[in-house]
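Q: What does the assembled structure look like for these inputs?
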Amino acid sequence: MADFDQELDASGLNCPLPILRAKKAIAGLESGQVLRIIATDPGSVKDFEAFAKQTGNELMESGEEDGKFVFMMKKA
Amino acid sequence: MEEKKLAIIATKGTLDWAYPPFILASTAAALGYEVQIFFTFYGLQLVKKDLNLKVSSLGNPGMPMPMAMDKWFPVAFQALPGMESMMTSMMKKKMKDKGVASLEELRELSAEAEVKMVACQMTVDLFDMNPADFIDDLEFGGAATFFEFAGDADITMYI
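A:
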């Protein structure tokens, strides 16, 4: 697993909360810094792709770990 | 990236129908949209300080109910006193269990993300509503106010 600057645990949260929490966390980062997001909402897999595409932030990784979804998002 | 605009008209005042406007508004704002919601008629219940919204299966055969109640429960039963409150608390509990945000939270997040909320002045007058019952930062206006924003919105939806 690559390095990250901040971690957000959105486990147990349902749409649209993981996206909204991620957006807030990213707002506090510098450009180029990486946020690691953990989620349990299966819809978040597609949603974080869509979020990255529309905001310009880069979804570096999207995968599963211990039954949870893990994303690495680099701030544009 | 040029900022896109989303205009929403919220017309319904039940717990279930209160979700789409705030889910879409807060998410669009997170995606960089400028968002405005125009609340009219029963939609004004969504901008009261105290949200006391209910849900009912009456007139809504599509609402899933626990224990397949919708299959054997006579419709007349659903009209009994207390049924609406019961269904509302069951729905709220289900939402909480599934990690669905409360309406208060979604509305708060929308406001934080600078979603502009406009209340229909005509409805306020029509139902003799008290402006003091509404959340702060609510603006009051009419149809022309809505079109001022919606006129150059990329997406407009009626909920």
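The mean pLDDT of chain A is 94.
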